[in-house]
Amino acid sequence: MDDFFGFAGIKKDSRVAIEVHDLTVSYGRRAVLYNVDFEIEEGQLVAVIGPNGAGKTTLLKTMAGMLKPLKGWVKIYGQPPHKRRGWIGYVPQKESVDWEFPATVLDVVMMGTYGHLGWFRRPGKRERDIAFEALREVGIENLADRHISELSGGQQQRTFIARALAQKARVYFMDEPFAGVDARSEEAILSVLDKLKHQGKTVVVVHHDLYTVSKFFDSVILLNLVLIDYGRTSEVMTEENLRRTYGGRIDLVSKIAEIVRSRDE
Amino acid sequence: MSDFGVIVLPVMLASVFLGLAGGLVGSITLLQRRSLFADAISHAAFPGIVLAFLIIGKREMLIMTLGAFLTGVIGAYAVSSITKYSHIKQDAALGIILANFYAFGVVLLGVAQKMPVSFQSGLNNYLVGQIVAVLKNDLWFMTAVSLAVSIIVFLFFKEIQLFIFDKYTLEVLGFKISYLDIGLVFLMVLTVIVGIYTSGVVLVVGSFVIPGAIGRLWSDKFTYMLAIAGFVGAVSGVVGVYISSLAPRLPTGPLIVVVSGIFLLFSLLFASKGGIIKEFILIKSMKRKVTEENIIKHLYLVNEEQLDEGYQQLGVPFTYLLGALSTTPFRLNRSLKRLARKGYITYSDNKAIVLSEKGYEEARGIVRRHRLWETYLFNRLSLPDTHLHDDAEMVEHLLTREDEEVLDKILNFPKFDPHGRKIPREV
Fold this sequence. Notes:
Distance between the termini of chain B: 85 Å
CATH architecture of the largest domain in chain B: Orthogonal Bundle
Helix content of chain B: over 70%
Largest sheet of chain A: 6 strands, mixed
Distance between the termini of chain A: 45 Å
Helix content of chain A: 25-40%
Oligomer: heterodimer
Radius of gyration of chain A: 19 Å
Number of domains of chain B: 2
CATH superfamily of the largest domain in chain B: ABC transporter involved in vitamin B12 uptake, BtuC
Structural class of chain A: alpha/beta
Order of helices and strands of chain A: EEEHEEHHHHEHEHEEHHH
Low-confidence stretches of chain B: 1-5
Order of helices and strands of chain B: HHHHHHHHHHHHHHEEHHH
Shape of chain B: elongated
Structural class of chain B: mainly alpha
Largest sheet of chain B: 2 strands, antiparallel
Number of strands of chain A: 9
Strand order of the largest sheet of chain A: 5-6-7-3-8-9
Largest interface: A-B, 32 and 26 residues
Shape of chain A: globular
Mean pLDDT of chain B: 86
Strand order of the largest sheet of chain B: 1-2
Strand content of chain A: 15-25%
């Protein structure tokens, strides 16, 4: 962990946090993202929207370095994701884990500190403090000792977000953190996102509610296998763009994808 | 004394540490949902043991362990290949590999048994396990392996925890998860093979997973689960081995499993997390609550109109309630006694049942929740009005006051339910 805060790699005027270049990703034979290009500046709150199967999760996982692209590359502050491990915070879809696993809320949030600890080293008081701080940020410090199966959907999401906060990352990727969330949790999560943004962190969120997207997010990535459009929310959230994103069979690529998909099923 | 030092001590140490390692590995296997996978591996390891014996011509534990490791890994690889590349699903693949490798091992055992008796004696101990038949040096080997496995689990505790719970996050945090993936399978295979010498091919995975299940039943934390499982594994090992030493013909494997099985039975009944008796009490008390709430609800409904118009509450006779609630007189009587104790009802002079002030408020709440729920189903989910009542009969007992407030707000404080009845509110 030399260059822990990553100042060495960044020139003062370089403000690009995430660079995605000509990215094509596939699962087996089936390509799920084609030739995606964009750059995200530091301190932005970015939404990724698109229909089911549009490749949103794939994009997020590739940016976080969990999937290897077939073609193209991702850079986080000028370096490939696997060289930026401590910088990336990831919030997976809630359904991706077994909530019956024997762990309390605090246990899960402490997991966020493992990256800075490295192999062998046990979390201690410092890590506990970090975890409690993160729990306070999302407003569930009173649930610290609760078993994770006893949480509501919104509380589970907040636990995951607290874990990501405990990572003390610079770039956050969140996969549907608002799915199955009550109004109180939604409010809490939105305020955390806002706070991260004001700390100069970059946050990319897969999200479905177009209303909150237009209201709270700086930029939007419209995705449906290809990049439909990317830019400031007010400029790209047009009816035409949304129709192209959600309307399905607009261009050749999605037609091919549809054929491939139906063949694989 | 010398006898103790030479024979009993190594046997006891081996069973303690093997039990500990087995409990730890069993917990991990249980949480990874790989119990049957581990079982297939132990059966796949069996032909390796016999094969190694046939090749070198004597019982040499290190070589036999290597042989077991080899066929065990081949078995594991075969299961995952079949699952991945054919249409055969994992449960069938496990069954196929388990049966075939085991059968092959038994055939080889038959071949070995054609040889001179002194030469092959004791090979069938590996079927059900017989720790007394293990040579002293081999006991030390088993102890060393178990100790090493336990130390590794201890050292990598936090990585293993996150790997099982959410391995991709572990990867994002900068850990090489492929190391852990292979490492955990390696640990499992190694522990299973060493366990074969005491518990036998058939029972070894049971002797590991049972302590793991006990740990889970008593704890909601991975640390405690491992500690409990390791402890139970060690105790079962020692007790099983001790009983088997009392009568030398008793195999150790089944005794260890029976002992831990008794612990498991006890845990299933009484455990704090998901024990059967605790669940039973919960269900029982829920049923009680439903009956009691239904009684006071009926007392309220009978009187609803009179009370709304300011008349005195009428007492309701026991027989009326009996008919309305379809219960037995004994049960109804018991529920009424409890309600009276809680101060929800009193008896009038002619033994009729009357709601107290407290009971009246409670009953109003239940009726309110019932009608709010019906309104919700009708307005929001557009269910026809004939589909509302039965559902609300259940839900009225489950909704909390917070739920009630939320519903009320969503529905914009309706005055009447879909059947046109008034929704009672606090005054």
